[in-house]
Design a protein that fits this description.
This protein is α+β, with helices and mostly antiparallel strands. The protein has a single domain, classed as 3-Layer(aba) Sandwich (Glutaredoxin). It contains 3 helices and 4 strands. A 4-stranded mixed β-sheet has the order 2-1-3-4, covered by helices on one side. The protein is globular and about 30 Å long.
Length: 110
């Protein structure tokens, strides 16, 4: 089923991880991040590559759907923490959150 289409009943509980594979992200190691996420792919966790998401200065970027969580400057060693804390445990990895999209998690609140 393609992006933007209606979800079938079996896909409603599915999470998606979108990884940018555009030039800026690939230069920063997104292929290695993709490989790390693919080790966790399952019926309920779909890992997909996407083109530029417009966040090149914070590459590589990872977008988690359907909750619209954006992680930036993700390294392969961060993937297990994202999967265990966020995708399995429901807690975002605050140190990797995109600072402009998830501004409430930054130092501005201190």
């Amino acid at each position: 089923m393609g992006k933007g289409s209606e979800n079938s009943p079996e896909e409603v509980n599915c999470r998606y991880v979108w990884l940018c594979q555009h030039e800026s992200c690939t230069r920063q190691g997104s292929a290695q991040v993709l490989a790390a996420f693919e080790a966790y792919a399952s019926e309920t966790l779909k890992v997909e590559t996407v083109g530029c998401q417009g966040q090149c200065n914070l590459a590589p970027t990872v977008r988690v759907l359907p909750d619209e969580t954006w992680y930036c400057r993700v390294k392969p060693e961060d993937v297990a923490e994202i999967v265990e804390s966020h995708l399995q445990g429901g807690e975002t990895v605050q140190r990797l959150l995109h600072p402009r999209i998830h501004w409430q998690y930054q130092y501005y609140s201190e």
